[in-house]
Amino acid sequence: MKKVIYPRKIIRGIINLPGDKSISHRAIILGAIANGETKIKNFLFSKTCTTTLNCLKDLGAEIKINAGDILINGKGLFGLKESKKILNAGTSGTTLRLLLGLLAAQKFKSRITCEGSLKNRPMERVLLPLKEMGAKIKCDSNNIFEITPSEIFGMKYKMPIASAQVKSSILLASLYLKDHEVEITEKKLTRDHTENMINYFGGNIIFNEDKTKILSSSGENLTGQEIIIPGDISSAAFFIVLALLIPDSHLILKNILVNPRRMGLIKILRQMGAKIFVKNSYEIYDGELVADIEIFYSKINGIEISGQTVVDMIDEIPVFVVVCLFANGISVIKNAEELRVKESDRIMSVVENFNKLGANIKECEDGMIIENKFDFKPVKSIGHKDHRIAMSLVILFLVTGNKLILEDAECIDDSMPDFFDYLETFF
Ligand code: S3P
User: Fold this and answer.
1) Catalytic residue among 232, 315, 386, 414, which?
2) Does 6 have pLDDT greater than 90?
3) pLDDT in tens, 381-393
4) pLDDT at 94 over 80
5) Is ligand 1 within 6 A of the CB of residue 163?
6) How confident is the model at residue 5 (pLDDT cuts 50, 70, 90)?
7) Any catalytic annotation for residue 315?
8) How far are the Cα atoms of 56, 134, 169 from residue 151, in angstroms, in the given order?
């Protein structure tokens, strides 16, 4: 699908955004294995979250959609049933990795497959710890994972990479532990939405003081809850960058998720000189903060980012590079090698596509060096099958004030199907 995008001058307004993608996946999974009714408002009906929803329905979960709200009639930890068909995680890494953990602990056999770029993304990172817990999972040459019932045991696991999907997969399996516990240690902290939501549903996750150690045990008391999913900070990032870089802009984003593990971009933009204010914050349940974010057009300075900050803004890095192109001075991104195993190799995708359009970005093994100059070179059309790269290209064009014909625009449905409708509110 081609999409024509015309430049816009000023970004002004107050908007509410669709629900956070990570929280939407987790809410339906936990709702499906809790006891009793779960009601979810502002669920993200993106392609990836709908994929998780369909897999859960295939597993017998009673899920209804009523005027945009999700109602789940949870039958408890052992309420799911063997699926008649092979489950399909599509291109959604969150679906596949989280469901592998959930399925590993069921008393029935399952098969789950995937499509597109996900076929080539690393899965050993989740299979190894699950197997250490006793899971029996095989993957054939057609990317079909076969999970045979087995008893799940506790373990102590030191995360070799910073991945919330891997951590969440282990935690979902750990809900089925009988007299054991799982202890997970993280060197770099990753988003803690699974832990927070398990506890909200009545589970047993305990953290140490600096949250580097997580202890999890049986989820037998999980009980259905009501959740209003906050706006997705990763989708908000595109609008934050637009408002920041287009003169005279002033934007307020209402009720956005501001969990500290997702605030890397905002923290760094403020250090770069951005006038961004986080206001009216409140907690929806322990650990999950929501707030309004106010953004004014600002003059920005270049910066170097590395370490924990990179983990806290991992999905926002492609659009962060757009900011760096217009900052005062050179910017450097280090320790971001995880970007190479996302929906595309995002270091390569950014460097190739942005440089084709006139940027001067140097590719490094674990990041990029971004010069603050952009000599726009017109192209007939451009596009990318990775949703966050495609949206970053749109933002880059809008900031430069050029017309864009975007190819493969349908990939944006993965995380924000109404991205263009939101943009049009400013046109
Ligand atoms: C996610 C975790 C991150 C992130 C992805 C969503 C999640 O992936 O990039 O978009 O919901 O747990 P990794 O776990 O691979 O870092």
Assistant:
1) 315
2) no
3) 999 999 999 999 9
4) yes
5) yes
6) confident
7) yes
8) 22, 6, 16
21-228 has the same fold as 3-19+230-425: yes
Distance (angstroms) between ligand 1 centre and the Cα of 377 equals 33
- Closest atom of ligand 1 to CA, residue 25: 11
Express each pLDDT in 323-337 by its tens digit: 999 999 999 999 999
pLDDT reading at 254 higher than 80: yes
Looking at 3.60.15.10, 3.10.20.310, 3.65.10.10, 3.40.50.1820, the CATH number of the domain 21-228 comes to 3.65.10.10
Gap from CA of 166 to ligand 1 centroid (Å): 9
CATH class of the domain at 3-19+230-425: alpha beta
The overall average pLDDT reported for the chain is: 97
Q: Is 234 in the pocket of ligand 1 (CB under 6 A)?
A: no
- Domains of the chain by residue range: 3-19+230-425, 21-228
Whether pLDDT at 427 is above 70: no
**pLDDT of 58 over the 70 cut:** yes
